[in-house]
Amino acid sequence: MTLSLILACLWVLVASLAAMLPTRDRHWRLAYGLIAVGIPLLGYVTYQNGPWVGLLCLAAGVSVLRWPVIYLLRWLRGRFTA
């Protein structure tokens, strides 16, 4: 297993542990941090392992951070359908 995949697995583990923490802002600050670390990590995974593994890791990241993605899609829909 490459270093990038080990880091991606560690990212998923940290995201799962962060989801168990009680927060007042409904985990948004943690989500911003995970996104900031996850985007370059996704590029590193894709660079080392190819686009198919990168897409699998992208799907895993979207499943972990589904609410920011849902809010982004709602915002984009509102911007382009008005």
TrEMBL record:
Q: What Pfam family is a match for this entry?
A: DUF2484
- What are the UniProt keywords, alphabetically? Membrane, Oxidoreductase, Transmembrane, Transmembrane helix
Tell me its EC number(s), please.
1.3.1.98
Q: Where exactly are the transmembrane stretches of this chain? A: 28-45, 52-73
Which residue stretches, if any, does this entry annotate as coiled coil?
Answer: none
What are this entry's molecular-function GO terms?
Answer: UDP-N-acetylmuramate dehydrogenase activity
**InterPro entries of this UniProt entry?**
DUF2484 (IPR018919)
Q: What class of enzyme is it?
A: oxidoreductase
This chain belongs to the protein called UDP-N-acetylenolpyruvoylglucosamine reductase
| Species of origin | Candidatus Rhodobacter oscarellae
